[in-house]
């Protein structure tokens, strides 16, 4: 009986810590998947000598357009340069977002050119993709995957105060 009481007390102490570790792992895994997809897009653009696009996707088959919450993403070789997955264009990777994690961005796609840089017109692109779990465990419930100077990818930790605000 005493052993059961001690076990119950230990479980009450351990459960919040376990939840925090689990949510931290989910955030790290999703952010790492995004970083890997971005790096794949960049390296494939250089290797193939053509544009490679990473875009937001709702169905795993086509790009979904402008930013917002992502259900998933695609990385594809954009042979005709129109920013859409067309017949004959190779899908290089399909990713998905697993609940309770949310992924959001203001842009719907990142386009890497054959020189390895993401560009918008003649300017180097910058983008932020927010990975979040709406919880206070851990307090740092956001990961911001950023692209700066056209190709530098970094992950920053942030505190959303239990919410998942837009990036």
Automatic annotation (TrEMBL):
This is Type II secretion system protein H. It holds the Pfam family GspH. Residues 30-147 form the General secretion pathway GspH domain. It is a single-pass membrane protein. One of its GO terms (cellular component) is plasma membrane. Keywords: Cell inner membrane, Cell membrane, Membrane, Methylation, Transmembrane, Transmembrane helix. It comes from the Bacteria. Belongs to the GSP H family. Its main location: membrane. Gene3D superfamilies: minor pseudopilin epsh domain. It is found in: Cell inner membrane. One of its GO terms (biological process) is protein secretion by the type II secretion system.
